[in-house]
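Each lists chain and fold; for instance:
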Amino acid sequence: MKNGDMENALKFQFDLLNYSLVSFNYGSWNHRNLKNRFWRLYRHDHYGAGIICSGKEIEFLPDCFYLIPPQITFSSWCRAKLTQFSVHFIINPLRGNRIYRVNATDELDILYHAVADTPPEKRNILRDKINLTALCASCIRKLPEDIFSQPEQEDVPLQIICGEINDFYQNPLSLKTVAASINMSKSSRNRIVRRKLSTSPYQYLLKRRYEYAARLLCTTDMTLKEICSIVSINDVYHFSRMFKQRYGMAPSIFRKQKKNLPE
């Protein structure tokens, strides 16, 4: 076993924060810019609800579990009547980089139904915690191997900085706020980003905003003014001019041609 693997194993932490079984009607799970500081596990009993992450709409399918790692920002939507099962938990030092779907199995169903099908008056908190801990761990175990491989230590600050910017690129935050939120000086933040990405934090923030604007142009019927508001750019004329510099065409032409979206 490598020294890094041993260190990560010794730092392992699992905390069950809360769980719930809630019924939703149309529009009652519509929230914008939800940000995780913990893992979330969801399961719905019907079609008709899901999330939007990085401009992509993901519908939660019945008989599947969905895991949302920390540091991912998403919006939720609901267009039907359904029941949602959710668990919030911390499992350090594991970090994911996308939304994960885990198909239900007999093993997972036994653990899920042991909690979800028990009437409130017959629940036992200790038994529920044991079943939910096993359920979360079993779902995590089915995820790709890369979540168990921790980044090199020198890359951790860069990932934290970029993660914070990615969380807030739709908001009019100052980059000073990003540095403060991760207990890092402005000069240290700038030096790390320039050394690793050959650009400034501000240019990285702009890149993320224009990438998201491009996605909105191709996936929605929003006006330019509405898109500018979402990505926190105040001047529509300035947005159009800078968009043309980045993509070689005006936003209206880009929308009509349905160009490939940036990665």
About this structure: The chain has ten helices and nine strands.
